[in-house]
């Protein structure tokens, strides 16, 4: 049966009882949701309705688990034992008396975690209940049995159970968070309707506030972890290290047991099909793991196989809360997982990898966790791209362009490094020098293009034949070198024979009708020998094989006769002019390449540093200011700006700019399709204008920058949460200043900006949600105390006006406004009997009242953007002479905002009716403020406030005609 309609009689008492419970619940709600809060709610419900016992049923998910809390005398020992396997754990806890309010310390409190059929039935019962009801007779008896709450004494059947469903988010259609069952409440059912609704509303607000607090605390922890992770990821440009860090940080942020980072790779031609894979030419390769065996690295997955494969196939995140039932778990490494989530990693407009985290226990995965992993994946993708670019640069700088092997300079560096390692550690090392026999005939008969194909095939064959930690380099022309690590001559000879076979097969596969053999000179490093001496001995062995042994053989340096000498021609003293020009050309080209590589490396390093800097920011404007600062100062761009879409997305405005911009730039608006930025947004890619004036790509620059400062332009779109947000724009005064390398660097910055703005948006949404719950508590306080409602509005207006009169800036004024709104929020925890007592407070009551500033600070502490407001709320009752509370601060030690609010608060209190006295005349209140200036109040604040009153009401206290309208407008 539903509750009867409440009568008006007793409504005030019902609301008072419920609000008294609200005050006691508010203090514990700020610490977040949990068993103690639910136990406290049950204890308060028992006290409010004077029930014999109270039970709380809480089913957090659909995993067949249920929490059962019992509060009241006799709860221990009156329940029969649960059926076999139903009880998974039992802990007895007492709610702290300060938090449980009137819950007596003599009460028995117990908490069980149930599983099995009993848990499912209780959870289903709680979920079906939509409104408060009273149960009698057989229905009540059955529920008592289900709760294990049979009474020792016989019951007549008329003893009721009162059921109170506490729903989330203030909606009757929302999922039930907690069901309260009150056994034999003494308050008559017909008279308790008003109280029921009041208590349900209070409990709902308390649990929702606690839930929001808990979610916000977890989100703040994730954001802090994201900040640390972004800083860590951007500290390195070493790709394997970055991938390993991504796995470790992702698992840490989401408290996961495992993490895996997959890279997209092309299937090798002719490779076998992967089981269950689609027809894609690409696959996933596991590159880094956390919490999984190292042997898992290298695992290959086809698109569509496993959770990661599904992400690769669809391009969308994948969440599973029953991984063991998912079809096609890819490998035994993952069979112990029960839940997980995977998200794509993209950069350059393409899927580049998949990031997965997993849990070994059943778990409900929230949308917030998915958003967190997506945000982290964006940061990780930027770090991966920077590291990949750096790796590519290093590869270009150290690789031979034709064969893919180490170039000559890199080979020399590698050999010198390995020789030094052997010298320090006593390791062994061998060097193989290879020469392709009769290679000149290939060039002569088939041309240099075929010759290049042979060299390319040989280089590939060599790299595939050696061990992963050996080195292959092109020594020059048709000569190659193998640095065989930790190998004596005998082991190196085995490698040499394998190499000969691999080269023969590679050349044969090309169909070249020329027999190409391989002559190899082998030398093992001797202690004390230099790298140059080792090369000389290997080269001597190679030449001995070519000149004396008929080629296509392996020759050890120690087998070369001592009297064998190389007749090397002397180098020409002077090179002919043509050769000089050729050499000069190569030198200039190499120099230009070196400059380019250095520039790209520096830009990537700067982008990484910028990412670490932005990771610590949550304010969107600070983020865009940091970007333009870095582009102008560190990257050295002449003029730069971040532009954002405004209105309906059809216009662009300058969010931040540096360099040679006009005074109109900050307020200028441009059409979305204007010039290079418009094209970049339409085409969704970075665009370069080498000569903007010649190309007619003017971009409305008269509103942004001097025309002669923008001959070269570069624009990159910025995307936030999959939607266009704006663009990054840079310019130089000369033509042809930008190239593809600059576009790559600016794209990295734009990606970092998009990821940071996304995190800032999530943070802002969370702040708004928590602010809403805090304001709801403030509204509850106004309902609790009629004086508080009008007092709060008047106080906010006066405090803001005094702050302006004292010349404070807008940010300080906003903090004072918020401080005035929330200055009394802690009174929600003060009992009504103290708040509305008609006479003086006792010492004990005064001490309890004075705790409201500390409780208010505690309630607001989880709100990050209110951190500057907390001192105002805590110290609003400090006195100028140091005799205030809670910390006894004096004079300038007290925050100015607190001093302002104290004066305005005192004036409002004196000029308002209170339970213990009528309102004082305005002139008397003014005199009291002036008399206590310098003892209780800051004299400067009192002067400003009295001057404000004079402007509004005139010196005598009556409103003047001019000032009255001003007061209304303020």
From TrEMBL:
Q: Which residues form the HD domain?
A: 788-910
| Annotated ranges, domain GGDEF | 427-559
Renumbered to this chain, region (Disordered) spans 73-112
Family annotation (Pfam families)? GAF, GAF_2, GGDEF, HD_5
The organism's superkingdom is given as Bacteria
Q: Which SUPFAM superfamilies match?
A: GAF domain-like (SSF55781), HD-domain/PDEase-like (SSF109604), Nucleotide cyclase (SSF55073)
**Record domain HD-GYP: where:** 766-961
Extent of Basic and acidic residues compositional bias: 76-95
InterPro entries, from UniProt? Answer: GAF (IPR003018), GAF-like_dom_sf (IPR029016), GGDEF_dom (IPR000160), HD/PDEase_dom (IPR003607), HD_domain (IPR006674), HD_GYP_dom (IPR037522), HDIG_dom (IPR006675), Nucleotide_cyclase (IPR029787)
From the Swiss-Prot or TrEMBL record, give the protein name.
Diguanylate cyclase (GGDEF) domain-containing protein/HDIG domain-containing protein
Species whose genome carries this gene:
Thermoleophilum album
């Amino acid at each position: 049966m539903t509750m009867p309609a409440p009568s008006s009689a007793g409504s005030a008492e019902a609301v008072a009882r419920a609000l008294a419970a609200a005050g006691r619940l508010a203090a514990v709600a700020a610490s977040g949701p949990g068993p103690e809060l639910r136990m406290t709610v049950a204890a308060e419900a028992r006290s409010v309705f004077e029930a014999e016992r109270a039970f709380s049923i809480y089913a957090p998910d659909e995993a067949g688990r249920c929490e059962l809390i019992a509060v009241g005398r006799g709860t221990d020992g009156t329940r029969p034992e649960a059926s076999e396997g139903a009880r998974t754990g039992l802990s007895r806890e007492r709610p702290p008396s300060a938090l449980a309010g009137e819950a007596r310390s003599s009460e028995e409190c117990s908490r069980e975690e149930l599983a099995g059929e009993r848990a499912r039935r209780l959870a289903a019962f709680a979920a079906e209940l939509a409104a408060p009801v009273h149960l009698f007779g057989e229905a009540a008896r059955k529920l008592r049995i289900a709760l294990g709450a049979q009474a020792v004494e016989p019951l007549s059947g008329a003893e009721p159970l009162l059921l109170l469903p506490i729903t989330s988010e203030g909606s009757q259609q929302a999922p039930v968070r907690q069901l309260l069952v009150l056994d034999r409440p003494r308050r008559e059912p017909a008279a308790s309707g008003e109280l029921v609704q009041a208590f349900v509303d209070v409990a709902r607000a308390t649990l929702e506030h606690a839930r929001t607090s808990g979610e916000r605390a977890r989100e703040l922890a994730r954001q802090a972890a994201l900040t640390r992770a972004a800083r860590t990821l951007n500290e390195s440009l070493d790709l394997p290290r970055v991938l390993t860090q991504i796995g470790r940080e992702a698992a840490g942020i989401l408290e996961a047991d495992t993490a895996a980072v997959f890279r997209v790779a092309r299937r090798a031609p002719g490779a076998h099909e992967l089981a269950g894979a689609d027809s894609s030419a690409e696959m996933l390769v596991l590159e880094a793991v956390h919490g999984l065996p190292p042997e898992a690295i290298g695992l290959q997955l086809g698109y569509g196989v496993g959770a990661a494969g599904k992400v690769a196939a669809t391009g969308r995140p994948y969440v599973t809360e029953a991984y063991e039932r998912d079809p096609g778990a890819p490998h035994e490494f993952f069979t112990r997982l029960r839940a997980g989530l995977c998200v794509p990693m993209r950069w350059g407009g393409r899927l580049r990898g998949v990031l997965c985290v997993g849990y070994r226990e059943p778990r409900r995965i929230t949308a917030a966790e998915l958003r967190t992993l997506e945000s982290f994946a964006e940061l990780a993708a930027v770090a991966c791209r920077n590291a990949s670019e750096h790796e590519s640069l290093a590869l270009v700088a150290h690789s031979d362009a034709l064969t893919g092997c180490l170039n000559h300079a890199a080979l020399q560096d590698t050999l010198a490094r390995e020789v030094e390692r052997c010298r320090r550690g006593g390791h062994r090392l061998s060097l193989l020098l290879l020469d392709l026999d009769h290679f000149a005939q290939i060039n002569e008969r088939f041309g240099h293009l075929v010759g290049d194909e042979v060299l390319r095939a040989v280089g590939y064959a060599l790299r595939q034949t050696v061990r992963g930690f050996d080195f292959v380099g092109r020594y020059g022309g048709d000569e190659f070198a193998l640095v065989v690590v930790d190998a004596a001559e005998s082991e190196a000879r085995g490698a040499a024979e394998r190499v000969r076979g691999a080269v023969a097969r590679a050349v044969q596969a090309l169909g070249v009708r020329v027999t190409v053999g391989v002559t190899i000179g082998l030398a093992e490093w001797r202690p004390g020998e230099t790298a140059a001496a080792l090369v000389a001995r290997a080269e001597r062995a190679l030449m001995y094989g070519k000149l004396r042994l008929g080629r296509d053989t392996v020759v050890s340096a120690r087998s070369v006769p001592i009297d064998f000498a190389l007749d090397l021609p002397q180098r020409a003293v002077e090179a002919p002019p043509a050769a000089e020009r050729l050499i000069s050309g190569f030198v200039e080209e190499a120099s230009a390449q070196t400059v380019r590589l250095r520039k790209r490396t520096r830009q990537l390093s700067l982008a990484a540093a910028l990412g670490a800097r932005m990771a610590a920011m949550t304010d969107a404007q600070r983020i865009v200011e940091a970007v333009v600062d870095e582009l102008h100062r560190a990257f050295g761009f002449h003029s730069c700006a971040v532009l954002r879409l405004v209105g309906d997305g059809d216009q662009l405005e300058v969010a931040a700019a540096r360099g040679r911009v006009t005074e109109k730039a900050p307020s200028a608006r441009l059409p979305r399709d204007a010039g290079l930025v418009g094209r970049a947004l339409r085409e969704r890619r970075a665009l370069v204008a080498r000569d903007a004036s010649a190309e007619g790509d003017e971009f409305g620059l008269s509103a942004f920058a001097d025309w002669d400062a923008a001959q070269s332009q570069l624009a990159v779109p910025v995307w936030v949460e999959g939607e266009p947000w704006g663009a990054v724009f840079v310019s130089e005064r000369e033509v042809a200043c930008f190239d593809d390398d600059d576009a790559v660097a600016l794209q990295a910055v734009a990606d970092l900006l998009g990821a940071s703005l996304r995190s800032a948006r999530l943070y802002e949404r969370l702040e708004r949600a928590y602010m809403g719950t805090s304001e709801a508590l403030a509204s509850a306080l106004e309902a609790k105390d009629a004086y508080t409602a009008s007092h709060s509005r008047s106080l906010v207006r006066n405090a803001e006006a005094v702050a302006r009169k004292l010349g404070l800036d807008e940010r300080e004024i906003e903090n004072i406004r918020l401080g005035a709104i929330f200055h009394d929020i802690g009174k929600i925890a003060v009992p009504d009997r103290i708040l509305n007592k008609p006479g003086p407070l006792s010492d004990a009551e005064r001490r309890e009242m004075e705790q409201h500033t500390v409780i208010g600070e505690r309630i607001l502490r989880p709100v990050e953007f209110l951190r500057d407001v907390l001192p105002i709320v805590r110290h609003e009752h400090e006195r100028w002479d140091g005799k205030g509370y809670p910390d006894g601060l004096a004079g300038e030690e007290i925050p100015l905002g607190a001093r302002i609010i104290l004066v305005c608060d005192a004036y409002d209190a004196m000029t308002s009716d209170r339970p213990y006295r009528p309102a004082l005349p305005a002139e008397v209140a003014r005199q009291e403020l002036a008399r206590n200036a310098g003892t209780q109040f800051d004299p400067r604040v009192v002067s400003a406030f009295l001057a404000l009153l004079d402007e509004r009401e005139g010196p005598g206290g009556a409103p003047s005609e001019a000032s009255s309208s001003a007061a209304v407008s303020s």
